[in-house]
Amino acid sequence: MPATLPETRPAREMRVNDFVMTITSERPDALHRFYREVVALPDAPKFGTAVRAAGAVITFHGHSQVKGGAKEPQRHFTSLLVDDISVEQARIEAQGVSFIRRKGREPWGGIVSTFLDPDGNYVQLIQYAPEPHDALSDSRWAPRGTGKPLPPDYLRTPPAGGQHAFSLVGEA
């Protein structure tokens, strides 16, 4: 049964020592090799079949109930924030990986490219590169449902519900 949200916040926040994400597959070794050799993330041997991405760890394991590729690849994204999306995308494409989204610009100033890993999971490269006139200074963009321009600290402030959603002012 899925978790439900409590009526109140806990008295204190959880102290997390490390962040580990596990990708299960019928072919965990192939996925590990892909993320290590193609995406070029460093091994994290302390965690077994795993790689490191910034401060997080991605582990790869088999699971008795996982069969075939990702059934809903859009349900979860592995997002890797990079300094130069053009360089990283070109390096990955040179190894035969096709991108399903190529350097799309987001209203919050991000440039996003998306490719699929060997199991069909979405992997995003993201470069934060606001244009001089991006969404944070564009009064046409507003947090969905507010009809008001973005405040300067919008992306640093967690919204109610935990998601940033944008719409043009005057649109639902």
Mean model confidence by pLDDT: 83
Structural class: alpha/beta
Roughly how many Å is the radius of gyration?
19 Å
Report the order of strands and helices: EHEEEHEEEEE
What would you call the shape? Answer: globular
Biggest β-sheet: strands ordered side by side in the sheet = 4-7-6-5
- First-last Cα distance: 32 Å
Share in β-strands: 25-35%
Give the count of helical stretches: 2
**Structure summary, number of beta strands:** 9
Low-confidence stretches: 167-172
Question: Could you characterize what this model shows?
Answer:
The structure is a single chain. The protein is of the alpha/beta class. It contains two helices and nine strands; from the N terminus they run βαβββαβββββ. It has helices at residues 28-38, 85-93, and strands at 19-24, 50-53, 56-61, 77-81, 99-105, 110-116, 122-128, 141-143, 166-168. It has a four-stranded mixed beta sheet with strand order 4-7-6-5, with helices on one face. A three-stranded mixed beta sheet has the order 1-3-2. A two-stranded antiparallel ribbon has the order 8-9. β5 (99-105) and β6 (110-116) form a beta hairpin. Mean pLDDT is 83; it is low at 167-172.
Short synopsis of the structure:
This protein is α/β, with parallel strands linked by helices and 172 residues long. It contains two helices and nine strands.
Task: Please give the structural blueprint.
Blueprint: E1 19-24, H1 28-38, E2 50-53, E3 56-61, E4 77-81, H2 85-93, E5 99-105, E6 110-116, E7 122-128, E8 141-143, E9 166-168
Parallel strand pairs: 1-3, 4-7
Antiparallel strand pairs: 2-3, 5-6, 6-7, 8-9
